[in-house]
Amino acid sequence: MLSRETLETYRQMTPGQRLEIALEMMRPNMERMFAGTPEMVERRFELLRRQNEDRNRRMLAAISRTGKAL
User: Fold this and answer.
1) Rg (CA), the chain
2) 21: part of which helix (H) or strand (E)?
3) 3-class SS shares of the chain: helix, strand, coil, % to 5
4) Exposure of 33 in the CB half-sphere (CA atoms within 13 A)
5) CA 43 → CA 21, 23, 37, 53, distances in Å?
6) pTM of the model
7) 51-68, pLDDT tens digit by residue?
8) 2 DSSP 8-state letter
9) Cα–Cα distance, 26 to 20 (Å, whole number)
C-alpha cells in the first residue's frame, strides 16, 4: 500500500510524468518481453491482457458493491 504522501505526489503529477515513471520501470524488462518466437510473445501479451482485464473487473465489482459513484 502506498503512503498518503506518495499518493498525493502521484495525483499532482501530469499524465506525462506518470507515463515516464511507467516507461522507466518497463525498460529493464523490455528485451525479455519481446524474446522468443512471435507465438511466445503473443501468448505472453495475451496473459498480461487477461490479468489486466481480471484486475479491472474485480475493481469495478468492488466499487459497485460500495454504491459510490466515481
Assistant:
1) 16
2) helix 15-26
3) 80, 0, 20
4) 10
5) 26, 22, 10, 15
6) 0.62
7) 999 999 999 999 898 876
8) -
9) 10
Given a contact cutoff of 8 angstroms between Cβ atoms, the answer to whether 41 and 34 are in contact is yes
Q: Return the sign of the alpha-carbon dihedral for residues 11, 16, 17, 21.
A: positive
Give the SS3 label for residue 54: helix
Indicate the average pLDDT of the chain.
91
Q: Tens digits of per-residue pLDDT, 1-47?
A: 689 998 899 899 999 999 999 999 999 999 999 999 999 999 999 99
- Calpha distance 43→30 (Å, rounded): 16
